[in-house]
């Protein structure tokens, strides 16, 4: 496993970064990242930018993503466009994508990272509360993917990465809503990978285990012993997207990441990738 990065406050850029891969690996690529103003999405944006990528980070809070964009640009020297976006609103998504295309001229990578979650026993969970999480996580992922497909990927190809969770691989107390939503995203990923693959669009989902420094980790860590993946590790695991089609198991984090942006690579049957294998083992 990668060594822990230097201690940083939540949603601050790393004070130092050791490139495990060529620093210009993603030079001049453009990534559109929902939920990019904080947590996993913020760190993905940072590591992408440290490898030469320009980013669009979007969330409902424009002040939050604007502050995040300033931090990211200052730390990496790359361009970062902050946008206000509710993934449940298709018209707002269209406007945001059009603005991103006007700014950069293209979008190579979509990272669906926007999510909603809270702790609640199933017996006390209202239908509206369940629906809210499904709307953000599942419907939101579909909404953004479909708009990107219509506006750019249909004609130019691209890469879609859906950030899910290990909750759906085994039960988790107080998380029936989030686990159900993420499991649905994994199913969606498989369907889109089959349907859009022939159009040079690669679709994968990544299900990281608990990530330190995120809201979900803070809320859930008190309920059981957790194996901890560091925020920086998540992005290194993205190399799994270039696994040759005959492979069926994840590789060590130290060998991951390269080839993510290459939409022309063969589709892999391992479209939904479980990153924290311990999370799927009962015990």
Distance between the termini: 22 Å
Topology as H/E string? Answer: EHEHEHEHEHEHHE
Q: Which strand order spans the largest sheet, edge to edge or round the barrel?
A: 3-2-1-4-5-6-7
Just name the CATH architecture.
3-Layer(aba) Sandwich
Radius of gyration, taken over Cα atoms and rounded to an integer in Å: 17 Å
Q: Give the CA-based shape.
A: globular
Helical stretch count?
A: 7
Number of strands: 7
What do these coordinates show?
- Helix 1 runs parallel beside helix 2 and helix 3 runs parallel beside helix 4.
- This protein has one domain: NAD(P)-binding Rossmann-like Domain (Rossmann fold), CATH 3.40.50.
- 37% of the residues lie in helices and 13% in strands.
- It has 283 residues and is of the alpha/beta class.
Quick structural overview:
Monomer, dimer and oligomer. The protein has 283 residues and is of the alpha/beta class. The chain has a single domain (30-280), classed as NAD(P)-binding Rossmann-like Domain (Rossmann fold, 3-Layer(aba) Sandwich).
Question: Can you lay out the helices and strands and say which pair or pack?
Answer:
Layout: E1 30-34, H1 39-50, E2 54-59, H2 62-76, E3 80-84, H3 90-104, E4 109-112, H4 127-156, E5 158-163, H5 176-196, E6 201-207, H6 215-220, H7 231-236, E7 272-274
Parallel strand pairs: 1-2, 1-4, 2-3, 4-5, 5-6, 6-7
Helix pairs in contact: 1-2, 3-4, 4-5
Keywords: Fatty acid metabolism, Lipid metabolism, NADP, Oxidoreductase, Peroxisome
Subcellular location: Peroxisome
Organism: Balaenoptera acutorostrata
Which features characterize this protein?
single chain; 283 residues; alpha/beta; Rossmann fold; 7-stranded parallel beta sheet; 13% strand; globular; disordered N terminus; NAD(P)-bd_dom_sf; SDR_fam; oxidoreductase
């Amino acid at each position: 496993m990668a060594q822990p990065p230097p201690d940083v406050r939540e949603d601050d850029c790393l004070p130092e970064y050791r490139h495990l891969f060529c620093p210009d690996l993603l030079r001049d690529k453009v990534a559109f990242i929902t939920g990019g103003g904080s947590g996993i999405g913020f760190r993905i944006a940072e590591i992408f930018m440290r490898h030469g990528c320009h980013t669009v980070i979007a969330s409902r809070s424009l002040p939050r993503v604007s502050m995040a964009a300033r931090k990211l640009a200052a730390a990496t020297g790359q361009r970062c466009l902050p946008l206000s976006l509710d993934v449940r609103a298709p018209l707002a998504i269209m406007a945001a994508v059009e603005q991103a295309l006007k700014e950069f001229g293209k979008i190579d990578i979509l990272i669906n990272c926007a999510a909603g979650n809270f702790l609640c026993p199933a017996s006390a969970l209202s239908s509206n509360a369940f629906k809210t999480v499904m709307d953000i996580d599942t419907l939101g992922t579909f909404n953004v993917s479909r708009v990107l497909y219509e506006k750019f990927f249909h004609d130019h190809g691209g890469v879609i990465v859906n950030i899910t969770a290990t909750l759906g691989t085994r039960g988790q107390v107080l998380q029936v809503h989030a686990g159900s939503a993420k499991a649905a995203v994994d199913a969606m990923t498989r369907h889109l990978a089959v349907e859009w693959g022939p159009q040079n669009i690669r679709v994968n989902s990544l299900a990281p285990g608990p990530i330190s420094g995120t809201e979900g980790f803070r809320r859930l860590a008190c309920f059981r012993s957790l194996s901890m993946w560091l925020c920086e590790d998540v992005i290194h695991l993205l190399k799994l997207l270039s696994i040759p089609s005959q492979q069926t198991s994840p590789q060590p984090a130290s060998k991951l990441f390269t080839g993510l942006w290459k939409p022309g690579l063969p589709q892999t049957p391992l479209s939904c990738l479980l990153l924290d294998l311990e999370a799927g083992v009962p015990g």
